Amino acid sequence: MGSPLFVAGDNQHWERLLARYRAGDKLAREQLVSEMMPLVNSLARRYARGGNHEDLVQAGLMGLTKALERFDTSTGATLSAYAVPTMLGEMRRWLRDHSWAVHLPRGLQEATLAVSKASSSLEESLGRAPTPQEIADKLGLGLEEVVEALLAGRAYDATSLQQRIGHDSEDLALGDTLGGDDIEYDRRELVLTLRQARHVLSERDRLVLHLRFVEDMTQSEIGKEIGVSQMQVSRILRSATARLRAELEPEVAELLVA
Questions:
Q1: Domains in the chain, please, with CATH?
Q2: Reported pTM
Q3: If you placed Cys at 11, which of 78, 100, 163, 254 could pair as Cys (CB 3.0 to 4.6 Å)?
Q4: Does residue 152 contact residue 118 with C-beta atoms inside 8 Å?
Q5: Looking at residues 106-121, what average pLDDT do you find?
Q6: Could you read off the pLDDT of 126-167 as tens digits, one per residue?
Q7: Torsion sign, CA atoms 141, 146, 149, 153
């Protein structure tokens, strides 16, 4: 390999340590893993994002363990050439299973990764971004499957709502720029619905309801305002709301009594 982390002599040294380990020297294995750790860290940094470097290192060590158990010197390959793809495979598997911002089914995750890889390959060969149909043709997938995978790829990353916008200490967080639920929309819808049903109410009914639910006056205050007793105000409110409930749809009536 062309990595500056090691040269051919490193591989020969590592393979001698591996031979000693397989002969029963456990210290040789510890030394071998220790000497190959810079390689594991280097590979982990390629894929690290969002503070998952240590997790990728652990995945890489699992791949290294598998490589040390399976490596066969008779194939003619060097230990590093055999170990690197094994470690990368474990790191990619960890990313596939743990690093999605939104959980996706395993099949869709795999399709998304395949589409991403094919897209990069096609972009390099075509000199431009490939179309979904070109990706579908390369992978032998349907166009809808590719489009679904491209959309699912957006679930890989998520931006924190605490992320600062701009460079000044007083800049807003991203979450500060997002709109929230506006209770006035629901209120406006209810008001329009009530207007459609107001024909069942007398002028006095409308006035009492307005004083009670808009002006937030007590029944005693309303009685003094219109010149009747509190008990009469109570009867007016019960009668008016009953007529409205009978006129309105059930779900709107639930809002009135909530």
A1: 8-98 (1.10.1740.10), 106-157 (1.10.10.10), 183-257 (1.10.10)
A2: 0.42
A3: 78
A4: no
A5: 76
A6: 878 888 899 999 999 888 888 877 776 655 554 555 555 555
A7: positive
Query: Can you read off the two tokens belonging to residue 258?
Result: 């909530």
Do 87 and 60 touch, CB atoms closer than 8 A? yes
* Nearest Cα residue to 150 out of 120, 128, 171, 126: 120
Tokens of 121: 């390959």
For residue 4, what pLDDT is reported? 42
Task: State the CB neighbour count (10 A cutoff) for residue 147.
Answer: 16
Query: Could you count the other beta carbons within 10 Å of the beta carbon of residue 148?
Result: 16
Residue 41, C-beta contacts closer than 8 angstroms, at least 6 positions apart: 57
Percent helix, strand and coil across the chain, each rounded to 5? 70, 0, 25
Query: Count of CB atoms within 10 A of residue 111's CB?
Result: 21
- What 3-state class would DSSP assign to 77? coil
Amino acid symbol at 19: A
Q: What is the DSSP letter of 173?
A: B
Q: Name residue 139's beta-bridge partners.
A: none
Q: Are 71 and 82 in contact (CB under 8 A)?
A: yes
The Cα 246–Cα 244 span in angstroms is: 5
Q: What is the DSSP string of 166-204?
A: SSSTTPPBGGGGS----HHHHHHHHHHHHHHHGGGS-HH
175: Cβ contacts below 8 Å, ≥ 6 apart: 161, 162
Bridge partners, 164 (sequence order):
173
Instruction: Find out whether 45 and 52 touch, Cβ atoms under 8 Å.
Output: no
